[in-house]
Amino acid sequence: MLQSVSATETALPPSDLRASASPKAPAPAPGVQTPQSGPARPTSARATTPAQKPLPEPTWRSADNRARLYKGDCLEILERIPAESVDVIFADPPYFLSNGGTTCRAGKRTSVDKGAWDKSNGVEENHAFNHKWLSACQRALKPNGTMWVSGTGHVIYSVGYAMQQLGFKMLNEIVWEKPNPPPNLSCRYFTHATETLLWAAKSRKSRHTFNYDRMREMNDGKQMKTVWRLTAPGQKEKLLGRHPTQKPIALLERLLLASCPDNSLVLDPFNGSGTTGVAAVTLGHSYMGIDLEQEYIDLTQARLLDAVPSLRERPALQVVR
Where is the DNA methylase N-4/N-6 domain (predicted)? Predict the structure, then answer.
C-alpha cells in the first residue's frame, strides 16, 4: 500500500524550503561518515542483470537438427531457451496422482504410482510449481504463440488459475473423450472418461493462429466442437516402449494442425514418450523435448527415427552461385 505524504511535508513551496534550510555544514574528513552523509555509495548505481545462460548441447539431435531432446529439469532448461523463440507448446505436466492407489489397466488391478515426479507436495507447492513452469513457457513463446496443457481435475484448475495470474489469453477448453475408458474399480464414482486441454495465447495482445478451414475440412465441412472423441493409444503406438501417461498421436496431430503456423518450432517441457515430437516432425515442424529420464529420451529417439526415417540423414549441401 502506498504511504501518503503528510500535510506538513508539502505545505512549503520550494523557495520557503530553501529559506528554512539550516546553514551548510562543513565537509567531513575523508572516509568519515556522518548522519547526513550516510554510508558510502557504490561508484555505479546501475543494476546489472546476469546474462542468460545458453542452451546446453542436446542429449540427442537428429541429423538435420529438426528434432532436439534435452535430459534435465524442465525449469533449468526452460530458462535457457531464448525468449520469444517458440511457436507452440504442448505440456502434459504431472497430475500428482501417485499416492499408493490402484487402477484398472488391461483388465487387471495395477498401481497408479508412476514415479517420484508424480507425487503431490501439497496444494500450495503443486500450484507454485505450475506457476513457475508456466511462466518459463510464457517467456519462451513468440508474441503470437499459443500453448496447450492437458490434465484432469487433479491439476487442471491450478493450471488454469496460474495461466490467468500470468496474463495468458484463454482461447478454448477442449474435452478429450475416451470411448473405452478403464472401469472404476471402487464403484463409488462415475467412470473417468475425459481429460481437459486448455488452449491459451501468450497474452491478450496476441494474434494467435487458428487454422479454421483445416479443422472444418477434418470435420466433414462443419465447425469443429470442443469435445474430441479419440481413442487412447493402442498397442501399435507402444511397440517401441510406453509411458504411463502416453497420449495418442491423433490428439497431438489435431491440436498442432489447428494452431501451428508453417514451419513452427514446437516445444514439450514434459516430453515423456515423445508423442508431441512424433506428431510435430511428421507434420513438417521442428521439435524440442525435455525430460528427466534417459529412458524416455531413448524411447523418443527410437520413435522419431521410426516415424520419420529421413531424420537420420543430413540435408544435402546447397551450392550458392
Answer: 86-301
- The residue type of 174 is I
Q: What is the identity of the amino acid at 253?
A: E
Task: Identify which of 100, 101, 99 has the alpha carbon closest to the alpha carbon of residue 186.
Answer: 101
pLDDT band at 97, cuts 50/70/90?
confident
Domain ranges of the chain: 63-312
Please list, in sequence order, all residues whose beta carbon lies within 8 angstroms of the beta carbon of residue 302, skipping any fewer than 6 positions away.
240, 241
d(CA 91, CA 197) in angstroms, rounded, equals 10
Grid cell of 304 as nine digits: 522419431
Give the chain's largest Cα–Cα span.
92
Q: Which residue bears the cell 495482445?
A: 205
Torsion, Cα of 298, 150, 188, 107 (10° steps): -30
Q: Which of 228, 227, 237, 316 is nearest to 276 (CA)?
A: 237
Q: Is the pTM of this model over 0.85?
A: no
Query: What's the rounded Cα separation, in Å, for the pair 290 and 142?
Result: 19
Q: Looking at domain 63-312, what is its CATH homologous superfamily?
A: Vaccinia Virus protein VP39 (3.40.50.150)
Owner of C-alpha cell 495465447: 201
